[in-house]
Design brief:
The protein is built from 15 helices and nine strands. It has helices at 3-19, 37-43, 55-59, 64-72, 89-101, 113-127, 201-220, 226-248, 253-273, 277-289, 293-308, 313-322, 332-349, 364-375, 387-397; strands at 29-31, 48-52, 76-80, 106-111, 138-139, 149-153, 165-170, 175-180, 188-190. The strands form two sheets. A six-stranded parallel sheet has the order 1-9-6-4-2-3, with helices on both faces. A three-stranded mixed sheet has the order 5-8-7. A hairpin with a 4-residue loop joins β7 (165-170) and β8. It is globular and about 60 Å long. The two termini are 22 Å apart. The structure holds nicotinamide-adenine-dinucleotide (NAD) and fe (ii) ion.
């Protein structure tokens, strides 16, 4: 990256870092189960809520306990179940129509990151009925809160229940973009591991490695605090010890509970300390090819960590020590490589491929430009890379390309 752009990125990141203590971060109020939602709605004076979810979860009957609890409390409950994995602006507009048709006064997002992000964007649309979703993309463009938002995660991955972010796809350009605003942090989060028991092995694996990616990217970045580093370390420990367990036995409630906690902590960490190029590249793939977010991240993470080189030896050594792969005496380069190798081993044990099938040579230039725009100047990555340098990551991770771009 040229020195002027690099200097601009670092100054921009420094500004956000310096402002961190005065920014209005908050945590959602935790609720133990969906049964508690009607009582909260009554306290808020709300008589009807919209559940935002996806078709698969609805078909599995995952919304029924909430719908029954609402009916018992005499509250109205309608549902929007059209959320796509990699949710689109059209999904948000359809949810908005359902919200209005149901005369709703609150939103309950029930599902993975896709449903939660769709609900967050709906909240922004309701706060600013005359503004488009695209018009609120980027950083701190919303401020106004919109109706009460409950997040009920059913994957242990995105941590969206704790973050300022909503990630949406523009269906026309297939561009995946991020809205970051404090008003998007949910008011309540139902962290109930029983809701994740039915998550199939592929999604258990890939969403769990998404959480790992959040924890690692936040930890190695340049805008960490003592608190975010502690959350990241705890998340890495929990995922390292429990993800393969949850993958092997999906009914293991203890492992599921620890994964849900880890995903939450990793979300708390990265929403303050940011992600990095793994996410910037993964979002470009999710928008263009519909690559599942967790799959893209889990495959890309080792490639991006190696591309950062010596800049991440020290923080990766600390993570390696935290999970017992190294000790104080181990050379940082050796410890870092052990940590990356352990991520690759976890991927293998979780049935995650080494490379991504979707990436096509002819798309790399456009995709890397999108990743550059997302990552720079916002993400305080350990080593800055521009679009040209990012192209090598796509080529390295592409199944058909043998590490070359053409
Ligand atoms: N806002 C944030 O902070 C943030 C952070 C990371 C990722 N994201 C975004 O979140 C999205 C991905 O979310 P995700 O990884 O949670 O996946 P998802 O919400 O797309 O769900 C993946 C699949 O799993 C199914 N599923 C979910 N829970 C289930 C359960 N308990 N039982 C059975 N099936 C279940 C869903 O129906 C869906 O088919 C991406 O768009 C990504 O960009 C957002
Ligand atoms: Fe993510």
């Amino acid at each position: 990256m040229n020195v002027f752009k690099a200097a601009f990125c670092r100054v921009y990141q420094f500004g956000f870092r310096a402002a961190m203590p005065i920014l209005p971060y908050r945590e959602p109020e935790p609720l133990p189960s969906v049964e508690r939602i009607p009582q909260k709605l009554r306290e808020l004076g709300v008589s009807a809520a919209l559940v935002v979810t996806d078709g698969g979860l609805r078909a599995l009957g995952m919304t029924v306990p909430l719908e029954q609890a609402m009916a018992r409390a005499g509250l109205a409950c309608s549902a929007y179940d059209g959320t796509a994995a990699n949710p689109t602006i059209a999904n948000v507009e359809a949810a908005l129509a359902a919200y209005r048709a149901g005369n709703c006064g609150a939103i309950v997002a029930l599902g993975g990151g896709s449903s939660i992000d769709c609900a967050k964007a709906l909240r922004a649309r309701l706060a600013w009925p005359k503004r488009s979703v695209k018009g609120m993309a980027g950083n701190l463009r919303i401020w106004r809160k919109g109706p009460p938002l409950f997040a009920v995660p059913t994957t242990a991955g995105t941590g969206s229940e704790a973050t300022v972010a909503a990630v949406l796809v523009d269906g026309e350009t297939r561009h995946k973009f991020v809205m970051n605003d404090f008003s998007l942090i949910p008011d309540y989060a139902v962290l109930d591991p029983a809701l994740t028991l039915g998550l199939p092995p592929f999604y258990t694996a890939t969403t769990g490695m998404d959480a790992m990616t959040h924890a690692v990217e936040a930890y190695i970045g340049r805008s960490t605090t003592k608190q975010t580093r502690a959350w990241s370390v705890e998340a890495v420990r929990l995922i390292h010890a429990n993800l393969e367990r949850a993958y092997r036995d999906g009914r293991d409630l203890e492992a599921r509970g620890r994964m849900l906690r880890a995903a939450y902590l990793a979300g708390m960490s990265f929403t303050r300390s940011y992600v990095g190029y793994v996410h910037a590249v993964a979002h470009s793939l999710g928008g263009w090819y519909d690559t599942p977010h967790g799959l893209a991240n889990s495959v890309l993470l080792p490639y991006v960590l190696r591309a950062y080189g010596a800049r991440v030896y020290r923080p990766l050594k600390e993570l390696a020590v935290a999970i017992g792969l190294a000790d104080a005496e181990t050379e940082p380069a050796v410890a870092a490589e052990r940590f990356i190798c352990r991520l690759e081993e976890m991927n293998r044990n979780l049935g995650i491929p080494e490379k991504l099938r979707d990436i096509r040579a002819g798309d790399i230039e456009m995709l890397s430009r999108r990743a550059d725009r997302e990552g720079n100047p916002l993400y305080p990555v350990p080593r800055l890379m521009d679009a040209r340098e990012l192209r090598q990551i796509y080529a390295a991770a592409a199944e058909h390309l043998d590490g070359k771009e053409h």
